[in-house]
Design a protein that fits this description.
By secondary structure, the protein is of the alpha+beta class. The chain is 36% helix and 15% strand. A hairpin with a 2-residue loop joins β4 and β5. The longest helix is centred in the middle third of the chain and has 29 residues. The radius of gyration is 24 Å and the shape is flat.
Amino acid sequence: MTHAAHWVPLSQEHHGGLMWQRFTAYHFAQTTSQVTLAGAELRHAAANFPIGLTETAEGWQAVALLGLEDNQNLLVDDQGRWRAAYVPAALRSHPFGLHPDYPGRLCIDQHSPCVVERLDAEPFFTQHGELARFPAQVLTFLQQRQQGCRQLSKRVTALANAELLAPWQPAGYQGSTPLYQIDERAWQALSAKQVGLFWQLGAVPLVYAQLQSQQQLGRLQLYQQRKATAESSAPSSDPLAQWQEALSSEAEYDWPSAT
């Protein structure tokens, strides 16, 4: 079962009587088709997902493509199992997160089934009203990830300003977000001095990670094909289709004579 995330700042006043439990499956991510990446994730992400470059209201971002359509995550199976060897940091902190409307505040996805009232789960706060140890650690993790995303955004922006990005339409991609890739020909035409400047900026690993990651597109295409095959072979729930199927098989039945 999926749900729409609803981020609210965590507070003793509103959530002191609630608890949380660690997720055991990734059903909450089944409609997450893209996640923003931090610089420290590039090596792992390139080995598991296609990496696209997008221009958002917050600036340029590097994103992991998890699906080929909006609201589709092909890396979560029907049982909620994650199909890749690496899980993006953006998904590992559920049900916690950050929201631009509440800077510096730890938020929770209030619609998540991981937010519970059971006494055998984990507390959000200590008896003194402070964040419990693990939520406090999650806040530090999220803040570090946020800083890593901002640093990577600056590198993508520098590449865009140097006209080193080109529109990218991966095979099978039907998402509404326009994607960009490294313009490999333009990159190879740079002088050694120009490449050196991008080394100093820390953008060179991003360039090669994005180019290398495109080989992972075949994994998404394979999962998409399997999904389409499974859906086409599933029994129809349409009453008319069921009646037509039964009628076409009437030879298997001993129909009563009309006399």
